[in-house]
Amino acid sequence: MINDKNSQKIVDIIQNWSRKHSIWVLAYGTGCGAIEIPPTMTSRYDAERLGVRGAATPRQADVLLITGYLTTKTLKRVIRVYEQMQDPKYVIGFGSCTINGGMYYDSYNTIKVLDKYLPVDVYINGCMPRPEAVLAGFGKLQQLIAEGKANGATKYKENLEWYKGNQKKIIPNWVMPEYNW
Amino acid sequence: MQEIKENLINHIKANFPDATEKEFDGNRLDFNVDKQCIPSILTYLKDRLGYIHLSHIACVDWLEEGEFEIIFIVWSPEEKMKVFIRTRIDRDKPVMPNIDMIWRQANTYERELREMFGVEFIGLEAPDEFLLEDWDGPPPMRRDFDTEAYADDTFWHRPGREDALDVREEIIRRSREEIPDFAKKYSR
């Protein structure tokens, strides 16, 4: 890496600029919000003009879109997916279910607060958010990336124990591999 | 339609004298039977009377009476008729005869009822869990299971929902609109 601090800053700016314009989203529909993704991606709203497009696997994706409620069962898979993604990676919480449980606030198997388990960069509220709101969320994420503030992955690495503790509290039989950076 | 119903009632009554029928409008007929009769009455309906399609197996929790009601819904594509076979079992020891040798797909419904209501089907070949993973609480679809208390114990809640204001009242206060009489009973 470059040792000079000012040169590093310039490299960061270029990196962030290029990251911001190629946001690849993992097509992993966890809840009912996944139905808003096809109109966002197709010709009417055409998210691809912003560089937002679908990726096939977690290892190729930049953004994990949590579209709606997460049951304890799906949370397992989502954690697994998130840990397989490579840096830079961001999480967007989509819909009111990820924020405070939404209409499932008293359900016996859905989590209510997503940011206790995964570091969320941007929340999009609404039940459901329309494609305009989704695009606004992606715009906000691009802005954060350009400013270098979308640092959810760093937060996850630094506070790994806290996140793992929260995750293991509701997933008692932990049979997944332990990732450590 | 009436002929088909009477014919069916006669057939069932001749073979299962304990069954009590209840008629409904349209293409529906209910039978209340004892739980030991379930495999034989379903086999009879399937093999002799053409009710070849199992639509659903449902469970109703009669908490006040201390009983579960298990309902099997079968459908005849030729007679366009659906038959509900109902039976009551004890709520404390919910044991049912297994019918997945009659319809293979009954296995799925029985596993669901086992997890959601705790109904045991004798000899059910499904050792692993179906919908709930790592579940150690009581069966969640029973009426005495308090979901809200369980969610409060298990999960975090983001603060801010406690006030639970009635949105309708706030809108009325702002716009000075009258609630119509029919809507008052829905107001909190």
What can you tell me about this protein's structure?
The complex is a heterodimer of chains A (about 180) and B (about 190). Chain A has 7 helices and 5 strands. With about 180 residues, chain A is of the alpha/beta class. Chain A has a single domain (about 10-170), classed as Rossmann fold (3-Layer(aba) Sandwich). In chain A, strands 2-1-3-4-5 form a 5-stranded parallel sheet. Chain A starts with a helix and ends in an 11-residue tail after the last helix. Chain B has one domain (about 1-160): Beta Polymerase, domain 2. A 5-stranded mixed sheet of chain B has the order 1-2-5-4-3, covered by helices on one side. A two-stranded parallel ribbon of chain B has the order 6-7. In chain B, a hairpin with a 4-residue loop joins strand 1 and strand 2 (about 30). The longest helix of chain B is centred in the first third of the chain and has 14 residues, at about 1-15. In chain B, about 15% of the residues are buried. Classes of the chains: A alpha/beta (about 180), B alpha/beta (about 190). Chains A and B meet through helix 3 of A and helix 4 of B.
Strand content of chain A: 5-15%
Distance between the termini of chain A: 19 Å
Number of strands of chain A: 5
Instruction: Let me know the average pLDDT of chain A.
Output: 88
Structural class of chain A: alpha/beta
Q: What would you say the CATH architecture of chain A is?
A: 3-Layer(aba) Sandwich
Round the mean pLDDT of chain B to the nearest integer and report it.
Answer: 87
Biggest interface between chains: A-B, 20 and 19 residues
Which consecutive residue ranges of chain B, at least 5 long each, have pLDDT under 50?
A: none
For the termini of chain B, the CA-CA separation is: 45 Å
Percentage of helical residues of chain B?
25-40%
How many discrete domains of chain A?
A: 1
What is the chain-wise order of helices and strands of chain A?
Answer: HEHEEHEHEHHH
Query: Main sheet of chain A: which strands, in order across?
Result: 2-1-3-4-5
Stretches of chain A where pLDDT is under 50 for at least 5 consecutive residues are none
Helix content of chain A: 40-55%
**CATH class annotation of chain A:** Alpha Beta
